[in-house]
Write a structure and sequence with these properties.
By secondary structure, this protein is an alpha/beta fold. The protein has a single domain (11-209), classed as 3-Layer(aba) Sandwich (Rossmann fold). It is built from six helices and seven strands; from the N terminus they run ββαβααβαββαβα. The chain has helices at 35-46, 57-65, 74-87, 101-113, 159-163, 193-209, and strands spanning 11-13, 21-25, 50-54, 94-99, 117-121, 146-151, 171-176. The chain has a seven-stranded mixed beta sheet. β2 (21-25), α1 (35-46) and β3 form a beta-alpha-beta unit. α3 packs across α4. The longest helix is centred in the last third of the chain and has 17 residues, at 193-209. The protein is globular, with a radius of gyration of 16 Å. It starts with 10 loop residues before the first strand and ends with a helix.
Length: 211
C-alpha cells in the first residue's frame, strides 16, 4: 500500500523574518519533537535563525495509530523533502538537513533543490558493524556547501572511517568529542550531552551564517 503523502504540517521556531531558514528532518526512529530535534531547533532559534521541522508520513502514521512502522521507502522520503522545500518557496533561502536519515535524504536532493546549504547531524555513513556498506557515492560530487556534525564514537562512521572517503571539497566535517550517533558522551569523558548539543548548535549557526 502506498504511503500517505506529507500532510503539509511544519513546526517553526525562531524569528519569522530571519534571512535564512534551517529545515530539519528527523532520524529513522524519533519524531520531529524528540529531545535531540527540540534541542537543535530551540538552540538555533535562540541564535536568530528560523527553524522548520516536519514528520515524514510514516512517523505521522505512528502518532495517529500508536503502532510501530518502518520508515517510508526512499522515493516517498525524497518526495516529502521536495514538498517541504516547495512549500517554503524553494531552496534559495534554505539550509536543509537533519538527524541521521533525515539529513541523508536531504543530501540526496540538496543540489537539485538549489539549497543554500546542507546540515547533517550524525550522518549514517554506513550501518553499524558494516563499514563496507557505505552511503557516500553521492557525496563525492555534491556542490551544495555542507556541514556534517559527527560524534567521534558514532558507530555509523567515526574519524577513521570518514578519513578514508573521497568526499566533495564542499563538505566540512566537525567532530564532537566522545559523542555517539546522537552526540551523547560517556560519563567518564567529563563531557555532557547538553554541552555537546550546544557545541553542535554553535557549529551549525556559524556555518549557516556564512552561507
Amino acid at each position: 500500500m502506498a504511503p500517505p503523502p506529507w500532510d503539509g504540517a511544519l513546526l517553526f521556531d525562531g524569528p519569522a523574518d530571519a534571512a535564512m531558514t534551517v529545515v530539519l528532518a528527523h532520524g529513522a526512529g524519533q519524531p520531529l519533537d524528540s529531545p535531540f530535534m527540540a534541542a537543535m531547533a530551540e538552540g538555533l532559534a535562540a541564535a536568530g535563525l528560523r527553524v522548520a521541522r516536519f514528520d515524514f508520513p510514516y512517523m505521522r502514521a505512528r502518532r495517529e495509530t500508536g503502532g510501530r512502522r518502518p520508515p517510508d521507502r526512499e522515493p516517498a522520503l525524497l518526495a516529502t523533502w521536495h514538498g517541504v522545500i516547495e512549500s517554503l518557496g524553494g531552496g534559495g533561502r534554505l539550509a536543509i538537513g537533519g538527524k541521521s536519515m533525515g539529513g541523508r535524504i536531504a543530501s540526496m536532493i540538496a543540489d537539485a533543490a538549489g539549497a543554500r546549504g546542507l546540515v547533517c547531524l550524525g550522518y549514517p555513513f554506513h550501518p553499524p558493524g558494516r563499514p563496507e556498506k557505505t552511503r557516500t557515492a553521492h557525496l563525492q560530487a555534491i556542490r551544495t556547501p555542507t556541514l556534517i556534525v559527527q560524534g567521534t564514537r558514532d558507530p555509523f562512521g567515526g574519524p577513521e572511517d570518514v578519513s578514508g572517503y573521497a568526499l566533495s571539497d564542499r563538505i566540512q566535517t566537525a567532530w564532537i568529542e566522545d559523542g555517539d550517533h546522537s552526540l551523547r558522551p560517556r560519563k567518564k569523558s567529563g563531557r555532557t550531552l547538553e554541552g555537546n548539543l550546544a557545541e553542535a548548535v554553535a557549529l551549525v549557526a556559524a556555518f549557516v551564517g556564512r552561507l
